[in-house]
C-alpha cells in the first residue's frame, strides 16, 4: 500500500509548513494515473496524522482525470489508462499524474 508512504510525506510537509498552528483540512489533487486508491489514502492519512498537529484533520481529494495528446490520430483529451481512444499507446500524457498539496486550513 503505497498510500501510507504518500500520506506520511504529505503530513510531514503540511506540518512543517503549518509551524505551531493546528491543521484542520488538507486538499490534494490526485491524478487518475497515480494508482492512488481514495479509500486507502484516506485511511493512511488518518494513521499518519496521529500524534501530529494534523491529528483529526479532514482530507479532501480532487480527482484529476487522465488526458493526453495522441501522436497517431491527433486526439487531445481524455485517455483510458495510457491509451488513446483510437487504441494507440503513442500518447503524450498531459494530465493525470498529479499528486499535489493544493491547500491546507490551519488555526
From TrEMBL:
A Pfam family it matches: HypA
Positions contributing to Zn(2+) binding: 70, 73, 84, 86
Sequence positions that bind Ni(2+): 2
PROSITE patterns: HYPA
InterPro entries, alphabetized: Hydgase_Ni_incorp_HypA/HybF_CS (IPR020538), HypA/HybF (IPR000688)
Alphabetical keyword list: Metal-binding, Nickel, Zinc
Protein family per UniProt: Belongs to the HypA/HybF family.
HAMAP family linked to this entry: HypA_HybF (MF_00213)
Function: Involved in the maturation of [NiFe] hydrogenases. Required for nickel insertion into the metal center of the hydrogenase.
Name of the molecule in the record: Hydrogenase maturation factor HypA
Amino acid at each position: 500500500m503505497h498510500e501510507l508512504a504518500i500520506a506520511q510525506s504529505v503530513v510531514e510537509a503540511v506540518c512543517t509548513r503549518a509551524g505551531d498552528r493546528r491543521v484542520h483540512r488538507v486538499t490534494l489533487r490526485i491524478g487518475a494515473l497515480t494508482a492512488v486508491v481514495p479509500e486507502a489514502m484516506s485511511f493512511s492519512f488518518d494513521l499518519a496524522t496521529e500524534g501530529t498537529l494534523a491529528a483529526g484533520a479532514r482530507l479532501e481529494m480532487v480527482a484529476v482525470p487522465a488526458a493526453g495528446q495522441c501522436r497517431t490520430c491527433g486526439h487531445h483529451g481524455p485517455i483510458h489508462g495510457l491509451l488513446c481512444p483510437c487504441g494507440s499507446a503513442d500518447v503524450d500524457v498531459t494530465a493525470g499524474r498529479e499528486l499535489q498539496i493544493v491547500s491546507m486550513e490551519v488555526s
